[in-house]
């Protein structure tokens, strides 16, 4: 089993940024989801609520741009470089229904750029200044585990075998309904690590952990999926797949499941082609 794709998302819910190697910290892949967009009330604005966020490309040191903290690009507007906020004043932000987190505001210039790029008003860019302050769900984590603005846990992993099996199901059901089959790529799930060579679809569900290069990860839990996976990242159109098919084959506890959440137990560097050794 090998790593075939690595990705970071410097600003949560913006364009996927493929990388050839990544530094793993206890908070996840370095540079992944360190920033996010919120509204006037400090509540997360994700592509689930506002799909055009997918059009924003964010770069940082993790994507090879070492000179600045963050660079934002989008069609029809000049790029913007953003410095780390130096103001010690922190604001309270919230993701979904989870407890509030503290963050630092990027400032008026970044906010104005978002509004121009996206045709909105009242969007604000914030930075996770202290990931160690975030406590994860104690049912699936240890007291010293933490993350930045990732949904629930620092890293997500998915296998090509699972994506292929899901596509087979989608195609089979489309034929039964007399419809054209939707194409469901791994990008719908925005996982950090995609691996190949897994002998059986969804085998990752049964792993207790995994070792990649010299880095050890615990499997915290399976990842429950939302309607964001039904948004085509190129067209922003929303359809019924893959949630409709996942609900037929991968539903339990009132949720649908795809990929697994990982928590790093050590730090180091992982790269494309690295061997993946699962623990069961």
UniProtKB/TrEMBL annotation:
PROSITE patterns: MOSC. InterPro entries: MoCF_Sase_C, MOCOS_middle, Pyrv_Knase-like_insert_dom_sf. Residues 128-279 form the MOSC domain. SUPFAM superfamilies: MOSC N-terminal domain-like, PK beta-barrel domain-like. Transmembrane segments: none annotated. One of its GO terms (molecular function) is pyridoxal phosphate binding. PANTHER family: MITOCHONDRIAL AMIDOXIME REDUCING COMPONENT 1, MOLYBDOPTERIN COFACTOR SULFURASE MOSC. This is MOSC domain-containing protein. It comes from Yimella lutea.
């Amino acid at each position: 089993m090998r790593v075939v794709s690595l990705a970071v998302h410097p600003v949560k819910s913006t364009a996927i940024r493929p990388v050839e190697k990544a530094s793993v910290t206890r908070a996840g892949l370095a540079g992944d989801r360190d920033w996010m967009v919120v509204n006037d009330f400090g509540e997360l604005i994700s592509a689930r609520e506002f799909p055009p966020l997918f059009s924003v490309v964010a770069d940082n040191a993790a994507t090879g741009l070492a000179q600045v903290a963050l660079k934002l690009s989008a069609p029809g507007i000049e790029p913007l470089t953003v410095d780390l906020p130096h103001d010690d004043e922190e604001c309270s932000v919230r993701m979904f229904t989870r407890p509030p987190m503290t963050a630092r505001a990027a400032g008026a210039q970044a906010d104005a750029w978002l509004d121009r790029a996206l045709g909105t008003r009242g969007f604000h860019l914030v930075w996770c200044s202290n990931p160690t302050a975030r406590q994860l769900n104690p049912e699936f984590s240890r007291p010293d585990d933490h993350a930045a603005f990732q949904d629930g846990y620092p890293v997500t992993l998915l296998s090509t075998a699972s994506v292929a099996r899901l596509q087979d199901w989608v195609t089979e059901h489309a034929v039964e309904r007399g419809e054209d089959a939707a194409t469901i790529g791994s990008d719908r799930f925005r996982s950090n690590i995609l691996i190949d060579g897994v002998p059986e679809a969804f085998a990752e569900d049964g792993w207790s952990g995994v070792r990649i290069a010299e880095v050890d990860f615990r499997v915290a839990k399976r990842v429950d999926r939302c309607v964001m996976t039904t948004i085509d990242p190129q067209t922003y159109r929303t359809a019924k797949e893959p949630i409709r098919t996942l609900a037929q084959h991968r539903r339990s506890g009132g949720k649908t499941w795809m990929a697994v959440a990982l928590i790093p137990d050590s730090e180091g560097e992982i790269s494309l082609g690295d061997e993946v050794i699962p623990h069961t």
